[in-house]
Amino acid sequence: MKKTIITTLLTLTAALGFAEEPALIQQQLPTTTDVLRVPPNTQIEISSKRDWFLYVKMIAADSYPEKVADFIPGFGLGFRFAQGNHGLDISSTGVRGHGWSKGTRNYFWSFPKASYLYYFSPAQQQSFYAGGGLAWGGIDTKDGTSFLGISSNAVLGLEMFRKAAFRTFVELNVNQPTIARSATGPFPGPVAEISVGAGF
Hints:
Blueprint: H1 2-28, H2 32-36, E1 52-62, E2 71-83, E3 86-97, E4 106-119, E5 127-140, E6 146-160, E7 167-184, E8 191-199
Antiparallel strand pairs: 1-2, 1-8, 2-3, 3-4, 4-5, 5-6, 6-7, 7-8
């Protein structure tokens, strides 16, 4: 009888001991709800950590040698890399058409065009930038003036949504034909381009 009582007590003690363990373990481990709990009014921002992006841009270019403020449309594709204050832009552009005055058809192009960019506020969502570079390209106004060779350019712009996956920019380019491989007619003056671009 004594042996039966001792065996029963040992069995109950062991059973209760093992029953307590899972409860303790369950209290120590975080639940799925605790891990996934997000405080209210928390904004989750999806940002791009890339230092580069591809873009397309629409261009309005001065229709040289037409009257001042007479613009013709154009299109461009490019690649931009930026790290800190410094950036590199490589692009190609093409502009063709009549000015508002419906004068001589003009044609400008550049490929490739490489520019160095300096960002004034590289850590911000938007930053002004300025720079310059060189391009291989041509001008043909169909009135006897043409140029093929190297042009130098200066750029001033504003890049927006720099930490987002989709970026935009607005910029002013001034291109000056510099070294001619071939040219006819008077040497061309500067050509101004206003561009609006979007990239990803």
